[in-house]
Design goal:
single chain, Cytochrome Bc1 Complex, Chain D, domain 2, 13 helices, globular
Length: 364
């Protein structure tokens, strides 16, 4: 059984005071009251993390204007599955982030409400509390901003925030839920995205066989093949240089040599820096066995294809290829067939069945 211990609350109730909200397009301009005499105090909440993970990663930084609360998380969960966020009321966040796929999309590209198809694969939402720049190209900072964009993206929910606000304000139950979470019945995009961000921050995944072995000390949790794969991953394969143990991502943006000629600018389109062309966010490998297809453009259907890329398919001549890819240039085929099998076993050991079935994240 995974051990737990008591942890301090992130913010005591005495800190829940009137605060200014971060400004987002379509959001309120006035201060938001989180609680007051009429509404009562929201209940402070904390992330539930195993001791070993907490010691390695620490608690993620929480925005001062959006502390975790029991009421805010519950509201965010309901909004995550709310189809009224889309223009046709047929699509929710969960439409493209499915729990059985670690809150990613098994389709190569998600399909919007009007049938238009996206251009990049939907990333997993696991452990984003420790991230800052969001999406494959890092175009926004923070989960609040990430929750804002899909609602108005014509390739996704294709809606407008005034329409969403009107629908939610017309629902007496939602007004009561917002009152409990934020101390106001006046619903706007800021409060919606804050609630969604709170819920997504609770999507932590640290109960895989690897975790039970690495953090819990269970020597039987991983097979011999998976342990061999772990050794390859951290030494010969140099994989941990980008996919650091713990989160299994360094949250950096890198060109991993997919193409000789860059066709999707990635981070470069956001920064305008030619040195960023073809650089994308390093995805977490947690639950990687259930988040196919792979890479930002879904070019690889299987993990075998992914390993094949690193075992002889890296384009080292790409102008912005990451320096950490040098290993692959000097060792174009470093893994034997048996070592590929071991690496596959290790990657499968990162699947967290508890996360995939956790009722706390399911549709309420």
């Amino acid at each position: 059984m995974r051990m737990r211990h008591a942890r301090p609350i992130i913010l005591p109730a005495t800190v829940f005071v009137v605060v200014m909200m971060a400004v987002l397009p379509g959001c309120r301009k006035d201060p938001v009251v989180y609680a007051g005499e009429e509404a009562g105090w929201p209940t402070p909440a904390d992330l539930d993390l195993p001791p070993g993970v907490l010691a390695l990663l620490g608690m993620p930084d929480m925005p001062l204007d959006n502390p975790l609360t029991v009421e805010g998380i519950a509201l965010g969960r309901r909004l995550f599955y709310e189809k009224a966020l889309s223009d046709t009321q047929t699509m929710s966040c969960a439409s493209c982030h499915r729990q059985g796929n670690a809150f990613s999309d098994p389709r190569a590209f998600s399909v919007g409400t009007d049938g238009r198809v996206g251009t990049r694969n939907s990333m997993t939402l696991a452990n984003l509390a420790w991230g800052d720049r969001m999406f494959w190209d890092g175009r926004v900072h923070g989960l609040e901003a990430q929750a804002h964009d899909p609602v108005v993206d014509p390739l996704e929910m294709n809606n407008s925030w005034p329409v969403v606000e009107q629908r939610l304000n017309a629902d007496a139950e939602y007004r009561q839920l917002f009152r409990q979470a934020f101390g106001t019945t006046e619903i706007d995009s800021t409060l919606v995205t804050h609630a969604l961000a709170q819920f997504i921050r609770t999507m932590t995944s640290f109960d895989s066989p690897f975790d039970r072995y690495w953090f819990g000390g269970d020597t039987t949790a991983m097979s011999e093949e998976a342990l061999n794969g772990l050794a390859l991953f951290t030494s010969q394969g140099k994989c941990a240089g980008c996919h650091t143990l713990g989160l299994f991502t360094d949250n950096a943006f890198r060109n991993n040599g997919l193409d000789l000629v860059v066709t999707d600018p990635g981070l470069g389109a956001v920064t305008g820096d030619p040195g960023d062309l073809g650089r994308f966010k390093v995805p977490t490998l947690r639950n990687i066995a259930v988040t196919a297809p792979y890479m930002h453009d879904s070019r690889f259907a299987t993990l075998e294809e992914v390993l094949g890329h690193y075992n002889g398919g890296v384009h080292m001549a790409s102008p912005t290829v990451d320096p950490l890819m040098d290993f692959w240039g000097m060792n174009p085929a470093p893994f034997s067939p048996n070592e590929i099998i071991d690496l596959m076993a290790f990657l499968h050991s990162l699947t967290d069945e508890t996360f995939l079935l956790d009722p706390r994240f399911a549709e309420p």
